[in-house]
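REQUEST FORM: STRUCTURE PREDICTION
Request ID: SP-0412
Submitted by: Lab K.M.
Chain count: 1
Length (residues): 732
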Amino acid sequence: MLESASSISTSGSDEGLYKVEKSPSLLSRHGLVPVHLTYKEQCKEFYENISEADDKLRVPENKRIQVEWSNLTYRVVDRAKQPSFFQRMKGAKAPKKTLLDGVSGYCSPGSMLAIIGPSGAGKTSMLLALAKKLEVSHGAKLTGTVSFNGNLCTSSELRGISGFVMQEDNIMGSMTPLELLRFTSVLNLPASVSEEEREERVQLLLTTMGLQKCKDNFIGSSGLFSHVSGIKRGLSGGERKRVSICIELVNNPTMLFCDEPTSGLDSFASKVVVEKLQTLAFLGKTIISTIHQPSSEIFRLFNRLMLLVDGRTVYFGDTEAATKYFAKLGYKCPKFINPADFLMKVVQVAPENILGEGSDPMSEQEGEAGDSLVAFPQDSVGLRNATRDQVEKLKDQFASSKQYKDAIAPPPPPTKNVEMEAKKGYNASYLTQFVWLTWRSALNTVREPALCKVRIAVSVIMGLLSGLVFLQTDDTAAGIGDRVASTFFVLLSQMFGAINGPTFLFPSERGAFFRDRMSNMYSTILYYWAKILTDLPISIIAPLLTGVIAYYMIGYKDGVVSMFEFSLMLILMTLCCFALGMVLSCAILDPGLVTRIQPLFTLPLILFCGFFVNLDSIGSWLSWIQYISFVKYSFRYAINVILSDTYLHCNYDEFKEIVPYMVDVVWQNETTAMQVHNISEPAYVCPVSTGDAYLEKIGMKSDNLWLDVLWMGLFIVGIHTIACAFLVFRSP
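STATUS: Completed
RESULT:
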């Protein structure tokens, strides 16, 4: 539609190189001509050339919302100045730090409000306060009011009419934009919406946000966990950001909050993203966004501006009037300077640690005021940064200005009858949620080599390594030790691989999960069990391969049944360790901390499994640990499978000599007993003749192997339940 709204002539002289037939603002948007129109003129041009897809996303007049906030103040505990333990014992408390200080203003429907300011100015806190997502616990306190068309509402009520685009693009990289939007539409739209209507909404969003050409491409992974993904190349940064916006637009909200939507993007991609947001504003939505270092082109796309410094407002009003306001105060913006950069220079205070002793940051000059980067009032010219006194003066000047009176006296809202109902439950049924969550998780498992191919390869390699090291162990008294050691090694090979699996793979999609939960899209419990269900096949296949390879290469007891019984315990061991890894990953958000704390859980489980020490010899004050060690039950089951009902023989040097007596004696030890009658010559006996005798000797004989299987099953369910509880507690 944009292309059809204008035509470009490339013939003739240079003056006719860019010839605008109809819509100069549209060509300007594409950077072809330096035409600057006001926000109202751009809106008029948009409606003259509006596409059918855009028109269907237009917000009706009676549903448009004006956001108003009055005297917002947000204070948190200053953790950098926490008193010591002894000071707290005496009653000392940590001081409070003010992040927002009496901020007021409004944003009307059809407007784009940019919140800018130096680092630490309170931009993100301001945005979160307006979106009712600000933390108000742990000593934090928010005062003031935020109303929507004059009505107060709760966070759950606001969730149904607004969307929030996070700074980080927390998206499943293994999906395509089309798949992701279909998934979101099924779970986020009411059940009354038909499948045809959902598909139409998805296609409209793809068209409006310019994603039709890449809708079938993998989104790809980026950020901290991209190194563990097999899909590293995908959409560009700008396309990923537009997909994030699309996700929030599925239920067609009337308001959109964006946290630095241009962060990490180049100038062209940033301009495209902000233009799409401006399109949404033209359609009647209320757009409020923090933005960092916008270019002059991006800066002009916003029609409203809020400049914050230290949590206080220095300017609030029309974007085009900002430079005029500061010019009246004596801060004139030089020509050919980005207004956003100029405003940041006006309020940016130079860090004290980079200033020389006795130096004045306001005394640096570069010639005349007309040639300076920033012309400050009176005798201060060529200034790079402001002083603290000047910034404080700007705050006081705004408090007595006409712009402040405008901020605290917003215009009447378009309507007072706004339908805001707290979202109760979920839009989709529990069955629908579980089916689609399972589908998404299965899709991610199949498409991510780190989740599938690598685990298979590692399992095969560990099976071969175990088989080569303990190749065809003898069924002798000496060989029985090798068989027990090989069993322990095979179990541990599954243990460490399974427990480390969730450590880095689950956190990679935790951001997407938190974003979905903030929208109350699906149940946390169903999400968890859908993920466990899709991981189940690979958690069965991988240890089964290790068990089959190692069993026959090591030369355990003959019989297919025994081989499958041995592999069954490897599978249960893998599932238990994977569950423990999920507990740590759900309870601790930092993967580095998880890897450091793992030995605290794994080493006691290994130590009390019965391999290193006879469990009967452990003191009663520590012996209870063996009963919560699932490694003990798996190890006991495995060695009983390979040793029970087996007969051993001794090599020549393994026989024990019996001292001759002329009377009847009984020779016995822990594993063998023999009646000897009137022997006059030395006799020799094999000390360990059966596997059962050896199991009795080390205290690992099991009378009922299936009881160990039952215990392992209970451990799996119990540990997963604990992990799920941690995830519910951690989720928004």
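NOTES: Residues 524-554 form the longest helix (31 residues).
Reviewed by: T.R.
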